[in-house]
Amino acid sequence: MSIENLHAVPNLTTVLTGPLREIEQHLLNQQASIENWFRNQWRKTPAPFYASVDLRNAGFKLAPVDTNLFPAGFNNLNPAFMPLCIQATQSALEQICPDANNVLIVPENHTRNTAYFESLAMLQNILSKAGYTVKIGSINPEITEIQTQKLASGDELTLHPLTRIGNKVSVEGFEPCLVLLNNDLSGGTPEILENIDQTIIPPMRSGWAHRLKSGHFGHYQQVAESFAEQIGIDSWLINPLFTTCGEINFMKREGEDCIAHNVGNLLKAIQAKYDQYGIEEKPFIIVKADAGTYGMGIMTIHSVEEARELNRKQRTKMSKIKGGQAVSKVILQEGVYTFESWGNEQAVAEPVVYMLDHFVVGGFYRVHTGRGRTENLNAPGMHFEPLAFAEPCNSPDEKMSPDACPNRFYAYGVIARLALLAAAREIDELKRSDA
Amino acid sequence: MSIENLHAVPNLTTVLTGPLREIEQHLLNQQASIENWFRNQWRKTPAPFYASVDLRNAGFKLAPVDTNLFPAGFNNLNPAFMPLCIQATQSALEQICPDANNVLIVPENHTRNTAYFESLAMLQNILSKAGYTVKIGSINPEITEIQTQKLASGDELTLHPLTRIGNKVSVEGFEPCLVLLNNDLSGGTPEILENIDQTIIPPMRSGWAHRLKSGHFGHYQQVAESFAEQIGIDSWLINPLFTTCGEINFMKREGEDCIAHNVGNLLKAIQAKYDQYGIEEKPFIIVKADAGTYGMGIMTIHSVEEARELNRKQRTKMSKIKGGQAVSKVILQEGVYTFESWGNEQAVAEPVVYMLDHFVVGGFYRVHTGRGRTENLNAPGMHFEPLAFAEPCNSPDEKMSPDACPNRFYAYGVIARLALLAAAREIDELKRSDA
Fold first, then answer.
1. HEC profile for chain B?
2. Testing the interface with B: which of A11, A12, A30, A39 to mutate, by most B Cβ within 10 A?
3. What does the domain layout of chain A look like in residue ranges?
């Protein structure tokens, strides 16, 4: 058994099959010191309970483009990962709430999103199998009595209306020690949860009412720079450049000059890096609502002209996000090509990595047959391809040389954890701003 | 996704393919409350850093027959389990020694056991991948300078002679925070490790110079009874009956009367249980050196007559164990049939389950083509068959009903953890007897 066969993150199938790219090889070679570095970081800033990170792999560059602190999509993980999920959950909750037995999940307010209910059921199952009694307490005002949702498996998911007595929330006499938010709080902080005695994870300040993508990527930039220095690479290889503008109103065409100006500067900065590395692709920029989620309020921009000439449809699309919230801030982020594709149709794909506590526990590809390599894939029409444990390294009778099955997924797990660390620092800052 | 697809321990291939036995089904059905029960137990008595447990599955009964607190055999685990091993190691060491970066492994004194070196290399790799700098410091007096051992992979294992300066041990200036014993200390407590400032895990008192199998199974009996009550089964179904005698000397034929007498009583007790459950097999007893290891000092006894008529060869075999230590105490343990067999030859097999901290991280079958269903399999001629993740449940496209792939391995993980809990209590007691 050689060192290459051992992986601090699961060795999962990836779409790419060619030789390891330079960044991937570099990260694999330094696995022990990278894990040591992470350990010291988690000691300073504990990881949030969970997160998922969208990555884009351009070959020459591998970077996170979005970090979700209230992940759904657990139903898209491979069942083979469940031992990892359960082990990580046990390890996390033993720290957070050593004497907890009851956990209450506060879900999104969806009433008809069946995929979300499948994810919620899976999350409930993971916590149950970890040895907790778990119920779901909805803060959706439309849910005033118990609702059951039929699942694809034939099982049922039960949603209870959340009630509050004094400073404690409960459902039907079930009083949790721990409240697990699976609701991104785009609509603001729900009164029913304010100042309760029970522990809420992640803290409510990490909801989208308080969080900004630019805040996250500001932390990510610092994390990436410190990590890059540690392992001796250019931080740009793992860090998408970004900038912001002040107040924006797409419908009133306020702030357009700033966007066009910053698009120009950012395109120049990316082009300089492309030139440095001999990359012949064309730079592009992703403009996103700074507090946006669900893939809403996102557009791809290739030139200053394009930024100046937004049509009414584009402006309308950019002006509102989840729950009808108005967009008043945007982040302009370096677009990262994805050179991964899935299936015979060569549909464009990007990996999404799931973490519980500071452990990588699985992932899947987000695939979109109708989108290009420079576009946001988190859009209607996307589907998910769960990653499996990489087969050639899985078989005990394998006679291949150990180098024949490197853990291509390792690099994804490292970059995703860098984004997780940025999120940890971000949450820490948001919490302190609360006090 | 149904609950049956989710497992608190990995879903591994097992030899048995028939319907789930009653005990297995019973344990699977109560997974959440079992995990909850374990969590409360670990809070009272933390699990040792590692252990492996030999199980025997007779179908009607599933029980541990030996618990190793200084496991070797890591090389026999499937590489696919490494993420679980690494995650568990990180979780354990973050607790035990939050600011440790350097770990020193103290191995067995073997100089030619290549299988052991493969295991040691794997253990070193697991710790490295978990993010620690790991060296191996031997206490073998024959090792006075650095020795390298060639591994099957082509890599090399480096053994350093352990040195002590003041109250600290080190190898070549490498000063560990943590000393990990992978030496069962059958020969007694090594002076070089006594009263050092560094943390030693597992504690030296858990070595075979202090430990007795009967002490372990005394704790196991209490654990099994409390667990059986909790989940509503007869504790005998998971607990091998046992008894001991006082001082024994096989060569001087001292203590034989006690053995014969107790064999008679134990056979009667087992027969009563067999009658109760309508089991038509013949009871048998395993007599083992109470401080024995490496499969040495073990014999199978089927009747009082057989116990009375030990021949010279049997007595010689029973009189000495590892390192030439004399046997002065034995444990008489209810024999548990193994009805598992491996391969076309139907070789008798028993599962060995590995745990790091309180997490089940993998296992393999110990297989012996030359032994019967009532015999000790830990003997020359044995080989190992690594368990893999159970394939039918592993594939994301699986269209089978969820019940079609129950986690047969779950029951093994539960019983192994009961033995682990017994070991935790045993170590706790041994430590207190030290003070």
1. CCHHHCCCCCCECCCCCCCCCHHHHHHHHCHHHHHHHHHHHHHHCCCCCEEEEEEEECCCCEEEEEEECCCCCHHHCCHHHHHHHHHHHHHHHHHHCCCCCEEEEEECCCCCCHHHHHHHHHHHHHHHHCCCEEEEEECCCCCCCCEEEECCCCCEEEEEECEEECCEEEECCECCCEEEEECCCCCCCCHHHCCCCCEEECCHHHCCCCCCHHHHHHHHHHHHHHHHHHHCCCHHHCCCCEEECCCCECCCCECHHHHHHHHHHHHHHHHHHHHHCCCCCCCCEEEEECCCCCCCCEEEECCHHHHHCCCHHHHHHHHECHHHCECCCEEEEECCCCCEEECCCCEEEEEEEEEECCEEEEEEEEEECCCCCCCCCCCCCCEEEECCECHHHCCCCCCCCHHHCCCHHHHHHHHHHHHHHHHHHHHHHHHHHHC
2. A39
3. 3-71+211-430, 79-206
Q: What is the pLDDT of residues B343-378, one digit of tens each?
A: 777 888 899 999 999 999 988 999 998 888 888 888
Report the predicted TM-score, pTM, of the whole model to 2 decimal places: 0.87
Structure tokens at A231: 């392992």
Look up the ipTM and state it.
Answer: 0.81
Q: Which residues in chain B (235-274) have CB-CB distances under 8 A to chain A?
A: none
Q: Which class for B333: exposed (0-12), middle (13-18), buried (19 or more C-beta within 10 A)?
A: buried
- Is B384's Cβ below 8 Å from some Cβ in A? no
Which residues, listed in sequence order, are joined to residue A356 by a DSSP beta bridge? Answer: A50, A359
Could you tell me which CATH class the domain B94-206 is placed in? alpha beta
Looking at per-residue pLDDT, the higher value among B30 and A5 belongs to B30
Cβ of A94: how many Cβ atoms within 10 Å? 19
Query: CB of A132 within 8 Å of any CB in chain B?
Result: yes
CATH (residue range A79-206): 3.40.50.11280
Q: What are the tens digits of pLDDT across the range A133-171?
A: 999 999 999 999 999 999 998 889 999 999 999 999 999
